[in-house]
Amino acid sequence: MKKLFTLCLSLIAGLSAWAQGFVFQYQGETLPDDATVIIAAEEDLFGDMSCETNNAMNPYDGLVLKLLNGMSAPATATLEITHNSFDGAALQWCMGGECTALGNQTSFTKRFTMEGSRLVQFDAIGITNEGYLSATLKVTIGLESHQANILFVNGDYDSINEIKNEKEKMKNRQEVFYDLHGRRLPSRPSSGMYIIKSGEYIKKISPFK
User: Is 104 in the same domain as 184?
Assistant: First the structure.
């Protein structure tokens, strides 16, 4: 029994060592998990329209990953672009001491040693049209994971937000199938007459094979 108790204490100590404790911060404020940082495009030093999570003039006032207890730990960060309507924009992600040009990639993972604070440094440079880019950044250190969302906007944010909401509604609009007696079917029938409901729309489908 004593050995089992000692083993449990060792396991708890081990888990505590892995639970490093870290947060995302933006402009000096700690972000709630899964919060969204909205950044409007501005003219950069070269006269191009760009969105940057960390401005070159004051980089630590931007999006920062902060380890709370000051110890070092291995970290894994994954950046996933969920929408991008920017034409001609060059995308670059610098984190953990390495910069990566993303090109047409929509997902990229970095592994690095986390010490103190790390800049996220995600940029869309040379934006030539109105639109938006949305991305999620998930970081895992030990057994702990946190996510921050990034929204770059060039143009009228309200109209862009309306487009996003409409796309979300369309994505969540599921097709449901019924037979002619109103009983729900598990999937689309391969033959015979049936009823399909999608959002507010209901339609009767004629027989086909």
Answer: no
Which residues sit opposite 40 in a β-bridge? 153
Q: Are 126 and 12 in contact (CB under 8 A)?
A: no
Contact 128, 87 (CB under 8 A): yes
Average pLDDT score over residue span 101-113? 91
Residues 181 and 120 reside in one and the same domain: no
pTM score above 0.85: no
Lowest mean pLDDT among 13-17, 66-70, 174-178: 13-17
Q: Is the pLDDT of residue 201 over 60?
A: no
Secondary structure string (H, E, C) spanning 138-160: EEEECCEEEEEEEEEEECCHHHH
| Domain housing 193 | 173-205
Give the residue from 85, 91, 83, 151 showing the smallest Cα distance to 121.
91
